[in-house]
Amino acid sequence: MSVFAPRADVRDEPLTTATGLPSHEDRSVRDRRRRNGGRRIGSHVFLVILAIYFIIPIWWLAVAATKDTSGLFGSPAFWFDDHFAFFENLAGLFTQQGGIYWRWLANSFLYAFAGGIGATILAILAGYGFAKYRFRGRGAVFTIILGSVMVPLTALVIPTFMLLSQYGIINTPWAVILPSLLSPFGVYLMRVYTQDAVPDEMLEAARIDGAGELRTFFQVALPLLKPAIVTVLLLSIVGTWNNFFLPLAVLTDETLLPVTVGLNRWTALSNAGAGGEQVWNLITTGAFVSVLPLILSFLFLQRYWQGGLSIGSIK
Amino acid sequence: MTTHTTLSAPPAPAAPSRRSHPEGGSKLERRRQRWGWLFVTPFLVVFALFLVFPLFYAFGMSLFTSTLATGTRFTGFDNYAKAFTDPLFLEGLGRVAAYALVMIPAQLIVALAAALVLDTLATRLSRLSRLLIFAPYAIPVVIGALMWSFLYSPRFGPSATLFDVVGLPAPDFLAADSVFGSLVNIVTWQWSGYYMVVIYAALRSIDPAVYEAARIDGANGWQTATRIKVPMISSSMVMVITFALIGTLQFFTEPVVLRNIAQGAIDAAYTPNMYAYSLAFSYSQFNYASAIAFSLGILVFAGSYVFLFLTRKQSGLK
Amino acid sequence: MKSKLLAASGVVAVAAAALTGCSTGPAEASCTNEILQPDATQVSVWAWYPAFEQVVDLFNETHDEVQICWTNAGQGNDEYTKFSTAVESGSGAPDVIMLESEVLSSFSIRDALVDLTEFGANDVKGDYTEGAWKDVSSGDAVYAIPVDGGPMGMLYRKDILDQYGIAVPTTWDEFAAAAQALKDAGAPGVLADFPTNGRAYNQALFAQAGSVPFAYDNAEPTSIGIDVNDDGSKQVLSYWDDLVKKGLVATDDAFTADYNTKLVDGSYAIYVAAAWGPGYLGGLSDADTDAEWKAAPVPQWDAANPVQINWGGSTFAVTSQAKDKEAAAVVAKEVFGTEEAWKIGIEEAALFPLWKPILESDYFRDLEYPFFGGQQINKDVFLEAAGGYTGFTFSPFQNYAYDQLTEQLYAMVQGEKSSDQALDDLQASLEAYATEQGFTIE
Asked: Could you report the predicted ipTM of this complex, rounded to two decimals?
C-alpha cells in the first residue's frame, strides 16, 4: 500500500479515489528528502516517543487482560505475570452472569451497525439534498443542523427519556438506535463532498435523458460518493459504538446494555465489592476484547480514514 | 456518459437555475428544487424528533422552578438569572476555560508536530507510528478513562515502580492540585491522534510545487513548515480548534469516570456539564439542570461564534 | 456495488433491530429470572442483592398468585438515577424497588413511594427492630419494608495488633493511643482509614456522639430541622482531624480498588465496619493469608453508656407507578420474609437481617464465620449493635447533604479549614440549600 496516491488538484477536480490521499511527490523531491538523513533520525525518534506514549495504556490493557485478579494487583503493571490467565479470563467472560458479556458485545455491534448505517443513509440523502438543490430555507436549516453539535447532551437526556417512554420504546434497542441516527457532522461531510464530487452537468445530463430525480440520485450521484460514504459510515459506527451516556440513561435491562455500559457496571460492582463480586480480571479482559474490533478495523481500513477526514479539512 | 454532456450543456459549468432549459421555464426548476426537501426530510424528521423537540421541551422545563418542598411553578427566566450568578456554575465555567487554554494548545501542538513530521517521512516506521498515534480514537472514552484511572492508581499503576527507579516519591495524580494535569493528559492522549489525522490529510493536499518554489528560494525544513505549511492548512486548524473548543467547554465523561476514584478532588459540580448532570440525577432538580445546560449551550455557541469570527480570514468560511 | 451492499446490510441491520425490539416487548416482560406461573400477577422488582435470583425463585415457587419479575438496574446511585428519571417522566419505574434507607425521604417527598400502612405494613411491624422500623417510617406513614441493616462493629487484624503489642481498643481514647503506639512501633501501615467520602459512615460516627442532624417528617414535608454543627459532631470531627494531622490514620477514599487492597494487605489494622463488612472483606481477593481478622464492638466515647450506630441498610419500597399496589406490597413484605430466604441472604450475600425471626434465632446468633477463624461475630458484636440501634432520620436531600459533607471533609483534610469550620460551613450550605428549595427551617 503506497502512501503516495495519485493526487487530484483541489481546485479543478473532485476527489474520486478511494484513498483520497491527494498527494504524490516527484522523484527529485523524494531524493532530496532521502538525503536529509540526520534530521530524519531525529524525526523518527520523535515519532517513536509519541507512538509509545499513545500505545502505553493499550499495551497496559493487553498485558492486564492476561492476568487474573490477584496478578493484576500483585505483578508489575507493564509486564506479564507468571501465570498467563488470558484464556481463563476469556472462559470467565463466558460464565460470569451466564455469559452476558458476549450479549453486551453483540448489542454493541447491533447498535453500532444499525445506528451507523441508518445515520449514514440519512446523512447521504440530506447531504445530497443540501448540496444539489437550492430550496428556500436551505441555508437556515443547514446552519441549525450544524449548530446542534453545540447542544450539551445533558440538556437532552430527560426530554429524550420522556419521549421514548411515551412511545413505549424505552428500555428497548430502539431507544439507543433511533437517537443515534442523528449525525450532523455526517450531513456536513456529505454535503461538502457531494458539492465537489458530483458535477452538476452530469445531473443535468441525466435529467435531460429523462431520468427522475431519484433515479438520477441512485445511478449518477451515489457511485461518485463512495469514499465519503465509507468515511461517514465509519465515523457513525465508531460514534455509536463508543456511546455511553445515552444507553446508560435509557436502558435498564442488563441484557440490552452495550459493552461500554456493561463494563462500567462491573467496575461499579467491583469497587463496591460486596460478597466476592470483584471481577477486575474480567473487566480488563472484557475491555481489551471490546477494543479489538475497532483497532483491527482501523488497521485494515486506514486508507478510508485518511481519505475521508481530508474531505472536511480541505473545505 | 460524456456524450450526453456535449449535447446540451454550455461550455462553462453554471448553476442549473440560470440556464435556459429547452423543456420549460423556472417553474419546473422550482418544482425540481423542491426535491431537495424530499432528500433532506428523513434526516429532518429524526432531527426534529430527537433534537429539536427535546430541546424545546428542555427549554420549557427551564422556565419552571420545581423545589423539593413547594412543587412546580412558572418562573420565566429566573433560573437563568440564577445560573449566571451561581458560584458553582461560574467556577465550573472558569475551570473549563482554563482547561481549554491548556488542553487545546496541548492537543494541537502534539497533533501538528506529529503531522508535520509525518508529512516529511515516508517510511514504514512513520506509517506505523501514524496508526499507533491514531489508535486511542478507537477506544471508547469511558474505557480510556478507566485505563488511565488504573494507571494513576498509587497502588496498581506503574508510577510507584517507575519513580522508584529515579529515586523520587511517586506523585499523587489524583490530588486536588494534580488532577488538572491528569485530566489534560487523558484528553490529549485520547484526541490528539484524531486531530493529527485531520491535519495530516490537509498537509497532504498541498501542491508540491509550492515546496519546490520554497526550496528554490532557499527555505529550510523549519521555515517551510512554519511559513508555508501551517498557513496553508489554517482552515483545517480552525476546524480542529473549533471542535476541540466545543468539546472542552462541554467537558464531561473523563471527569465523571475519574471522579469514582477521586471524589475529593473532583466534586459534583467540577464542570458545568457535570453540574447539570448532578442537579438532574443526584438532586432531582431537573428544571434548574435544564437551565444550566442551556446556559452552557449559549456560552458554547457564543464562544465558537466569536472564535470563528476572529479567525474568519484563516478559516475561509462565509 | 458498494451502495447496494450498504443498502442491503442496512435493511438487515434494521430488520434485526426491529425483531429484537419486538421480541423484548414492554419492559416488564424481560425478567432476569424465570416466571413459573405465567397467569399470575407480575410484579417488577429492581434490586441488586448478590444471589438475589435464588431468593426470587424461592418466592415464585411459593406464591401462585404473584410472581416476581426481577431486573438488576444498577447499584446504588446508578439505580437511583434511573428511578429518579422514571419518577420525573412519569413512567418506567418498577413496581417494587430496593432503596437504601437513607434515600427513602428523597423519594417520598416526590410522591414516588406508596404509604404501606394501607397495605398491611403494620402487620409485619413486630417482625423488625425498633431502629429498623423507624428508618422506614416518617410520622405515621411507612414507606418501605426493612431488609438488611448495617449495625457497626470494629473488625481488627489480631495478628498486627499482637505483633506490635497493642491492646484492642474499647474507647476512642484507647483508639487514639493505639494509633500512636502503632506508629511509634514503626509499623508500615496505620491503624485505620478516615475516608472523606465515607458519607453514611462519617454520619454514623457523628451520630454516636449524639448528633441528630436532621428533623424531618413526611407529614409536614415543607419544614426541616438542620443541626450538623452540633457539639457531638464537632467533638468527633476534631478527634479525627487530630489523628489525620498526626499522620496516625490514612485519608484514602473508600470503595476504590486502592482502598480495597489496603483493607486486606495490612495497610489498615482496623476497619470500623458495618455488619456487611465481613462479606465485603471476604470477597476481596489478594487477601493476606496470614491475616487474622476478629470482630469487636465499636469503640465508645463513654464506656459506661455505649451508643450503637448503623451504616447503611436497604429496604423494599412500593412505587407509586405500580399497577397492582396490593400485589407489590405482598412482594415487599414477603420476599425476605421467610427463614429460607434469609439463609440464602446470610450465607450467599452476607446480608445482616433485620427480620427478627431470623435475627433472634439461635442459628444466626451462633453462626460461626470462617473468615474470622470461626468467631461468632453476631453473638459477640453485631446483635447487640443491632438491638441498641434506635434509628436515624435522613433529610429529603440526602445525596446533596452527603456531597457537601464530602467536600467539607476533604477541605479539612487538605488543611484548608479547621474541623469546626468545616461543620459550620456545612451547616450554612445545607441551610441555604433547604431555604432555596422552599423548606422552612425549624
From this structure: 0.78
What is chain A's mean pLDDT, rounded?
Answer: 78
* In a shared domain, residues B240 and B121: yes
C227 and C242 in a single domain? The answer is yes
Query: A289: which chain B residues are within 8 Å (Cβ-Cβ)?
Result: none
Q: Do residues A111 and A176 lie in contact, with contact meaning Cβ atoms separated by under 8 Å?
A: yes
Do residue C382 and residue C332 come from a single domain?
no
The pLDDT of A212-218, averaged and rounded, is 84
Indicate the residue type of B65: T
The residue from A73, A95, A117 where one domain ends is: A95
**Residue C12 clears pLDDT 60, i.e. is over it:** no
Q: Model pTM?
A: 0.82
Are A279 and A153 part of one and the same domain? yes
Sign of the Cα torsion C102, C107, C112, C113 reads positive
Which residues have CB under 8 Å from C23's CB, separation 6+?
A: none
Comparing CA positions, the residue from C407, C422, C436, C222 lying closest to residue B85 is C436
List of residues 6+ apart from C342 with CB closer than 8 A: C336, C353, C355, C358
Mean pLDDT per 10-residue interval, chain B, length 318 residues? 36 44 60 81 92 89 84 86 92 94 92 87 80 86 85 76 71 82 92 87 80 82 80 83 89 86 85 91 87 90 85 64
Q: Are residues B142 and B72 in the same domain?
A: no
Domain of residue A298 covers: 97-314
Same structural domain for residues B69 and B93? no
User: Would you say A235 and C8 are in contact if contact means Cβ atoms under 8 Å apart?
Assistant: no
Higher-pLDDT residue of A137, C65? C65
Which whole number is the average pLDDT over C106-125? 92
Look at residue B4 and tell me if it is in a domain: no
Residues C282 and C171 in one domain: yes
Give B155's contacts in chain C (Cβ within 8 Å): 257-258, 261-262
Domain with B305, as residue range(s), is 82-315
From the list C149, C148, C167, C150, the residue with the least C-alpha distance to C299 is C167
For chain C, the distance separating the N- and C-terminal CA atoms, rounded to the nearest angstrom, is: 75
Please name the residue that has the C-alpha cell 430466604: C341
Read off the pLDDT of residues C339-390 as tens digits, 9 standing for 90 and up. 999 999 988 888 899 999 999 999 999 988 888 888 888 888 999 898 888 8
Contacts of residue B307, Cβ cutoff 8 Å, sequence gap at least 6: B241, B242, B245
Per-residue confidence band for A313, with pLDDT thresholds at 50, 70 and 90: low
Which residue segment(s) compose the domain that C268 sits in?
150-311+375-441
Please state, as a whole number, how many other Cβ atoms lie within 10 Å of the Cβ of residue A96: 16
Domain shared by A199 and A263, yes or no: yes
Q: Which of residues 256-295 of A touch B (CB under 8 A)?
A: 260, 263-264, 267-268, 271, 283, 287, 290-291, 294-295
Is B278–C414 a contact, with Cβ atoms under 8 angstroms apart?
A: no
Residues B218 and B282 in one domain: yes
Q: Is residue A163 part of a domain?
A: yes
Chain A, 158-197: which have a CB under 8 Å from a chain B CB?
A: 158-160, 162-163, 178-179, 181-182, 184, 187
Is residue A14 domain-resident?
no
> Domain total for chain C?
2
Pairs across B and C, CB distance < 8 A: 76
CB-count burial class (<10 Å; 0-12, 13-18, 19+) for B94: exposed
Q: Which helix (H) or strand (E) holds A216?
A: helix A213-216
Burial of A140 (0-12, 13-18, 19+ CB in 10 A): exposed
Instruction: State pLDDT tens for residues A146-162.
Output: 888 778 777 788 788 88
Is B268's Cβ below 8 Å from some Cβ in C?
yes
pLDDT score of C94 more than 50: yes
Residue B1 lies in a domain: no
Least Cα distance to B256 among B150, B169, B183 occurs for: B183
Q: Which of B141, B235, C332 is nearest to A248 (CA)?
A: B141
